Amino acid sequence: MRIIGIDPGYAIVGYGIVEYNASRFTTVAYGAITTPAGMEFPQRLRRIYDELSVLLGQYRPEAMAVEKLFFTTNQKTAIDVAQARGVVVLCAQQAEVPVFEYTPLQVKQAVVGYGKAIKAQVMDMTKRLLNLKEVPKPDDTADALAIAICHAHAGPSLLTMERLKAAQQKLPPRPVRGRRV
Fold first, then answer.
1. Where does residue 162 fall: left (phi above 0), alpha (psi -120 to 50 degrees), or beta otherwise?
2. pLDDT for 37-68, tens place per residue?
């Protein structure tokens, strides 16, 4: 299964693409989509959309794993990140890539085995699981790879459910059987 993990943002969108077969990972690509601070916000969203569209077309993932947003402060940042995340989800939907969401706690649990692990532990385990020489930079990229790993561990059953749901939607409705009077 080819998975793209996304760590959403509007200045930096981390992405990591992995193959997961027979409980083994292969790193396909990783990096970050960046937008300059002085760029108009709608143009930043457009750049994220355009560059992510190219990635989805080039690598053709079977699933996208995105981190759920959680903010306790700075409402303006939360709204802007949420808008960028919406662009990411729209891009995946237009490419017909199923989207799966994971909380930071779920990512930590899947990668480290402990939901309250610190960031350094998650990054180190990501490096080890993907057999990388060093932790990818920027941090958003390493986070995106961790999100992809999370989906590989938790997602196959979710992906099966998604495919089943899609197949059921394409079937004609079942006839209703009632009692004859």
1. alpha
2. 999 999 999 999 999 999 999 999 999 999 98
- At CA 50, angle to CA 46 and CA 51, rounded to 5? 120
User: What is the rounded distance in angstroms from the CA atom of residue 115 to the CA atom of residue 127?
Assistant: 18
pLDDT of residue 78: 84
User: How crowded is the C-beta side of 27, counted as CA atoms within 13 Å?
Assistant: 21
- Count of all residues that appear for the chain in the document: 181
**CA-based end-to-end distance of the chain:** 52
Q: What is the dihedral of CA 147, 39, 42, 99, to 10 degrees?
A: -10
Residues assigned a catalytic role: 7, 67, 140
Cβ-proximal residues to 139 (8 Å cutoff; 6+ apart), any chain: 14, 119, 123
**How many Å is the maximal CA-CA distance in the chain?**
74
Per DSSP, which regions of the chain are E strands?
2-7, 12-21, 24-34, 63-67, 99-102
